[in-house]
Amino acid sequence: MKQKRIPLLSGLMIGASMVCGASAYAKTVEVSMKAVESQLAIDNKGTLYAAWTFDGAMPGSLVRVTEGDTVDFTLTNPAENKNSHSMDFHAAEVDVLTEFAPVKPGESKHFKFVAKRSGVYMYHCGASPMVQHIARGMYGLIIVDPKEGYTKNFPKPDREYVIAQQQYFPDAENYAAMLDNQGWTNALINGKVFHYDPVHDPKATQALVAKPGERVRIYFVNANVNLPVALHPIAGIWDRIYINGNPKNELRDIATYSVAVSEAVIADIVAPADHPTNNAIVDHAMSAALRGAITVLMFTPDADPKMGKGDKIILR
Ligand SMILES: [Cu+2]
Predict the structure, then answer these.
(1) Residue range 57-86: average pLDDT?
(2) What residues have a C-beta under 5 A from ligand 1, the ion?
């Protein structure tokens, strides 16, 4: 068996080995992640927070496989950590008491699952107290691309971006307050307040970009611990929503889609082709939007062709 290692996104190395025989096109994808307890900036000016993460970032490394692939997963919890951690892939159909069991500092855990159903799924730490592990940043996204590829009802996008939203609780130790939904002060988008919104935060240096007329596919995950998200593209309409990211679950022409806690969804937007426009992708719940959950998406003829592709699907 020939192994090749492909650098994917920051911190993640995937080794894909082709499995021959009956499942001629399915592969085994090796995914390794490390539980990291460290200080991370939660805004564009660099305010530090005692985060817990997968691979040192919020969201953790993006995992991307094709329907039918086997994910061969290892979680390492380094000895210098103070807490047990675990991995709960929503794309897996396994045993919560076995595969998803907590891993103590200094130990690691290995398990496999077949990604049988295409879609986009949250993953998160499920170690106790789970509310605290998710609120401190232990979550991410796994995309399971459909094995039939793109079709008329699931067109190929021109650009792809991941947006993860979470509630920010500065008092990271007070998990009782988290359970009461008390004490959250901001909404984080991919780990930062107004991460891609130079309108509300002059220190924001990045925005999502595309060219007029392009189809932009957003992989959105609601990583809040308690609140749904009213996902709306201001000055636009979602061309398609794929519930759970599965092409079979297609909705058309949706202004606002309610994303449940832990739900992940594909939201496509196609801007007018004949002139530049801007959208602001928001959680239309004002308590979240005005506390950080606004993302600017610019459709401009000079959009950087590298953005929304390759390692620029999650903008760090
Ligand atoms: Cu954890």
Answers:
(1) 98
(2) 85, 125, 127, 133, 138
List domains and CATH numbers for the chain: 3-145 (2.60.40.420), 159-312 (2.60.40.420)
Residues 6 or more apart whose CB falls under 8 angstroms from that of 89 comprise 71, 73, 113, 121, 123, 142
**Mean pLDDT lowest among 4-13, 222-231, 262-271:** 4-13
* Cα 120 to ligand 1 centre (Å): 21
Count of residues making up the chain? 316
Amino acid found at 252: R
What would the pLDDT profile of 273-315 be if each residue is shown by its tens digit?
Answer: 999 999 999 999 999 999 999 999 999 999 999 999 999 999 9
In contact, 144 and 120? CB cutoff 8 Å: yes
Burial 140-179 (b: 16+ CB within 10 A, else e): bbbbbbbeeeeeeebeebbbbbbbbbbbbbeebeebeebe
CA of 136 to the centre of ligand 1 (A): 8
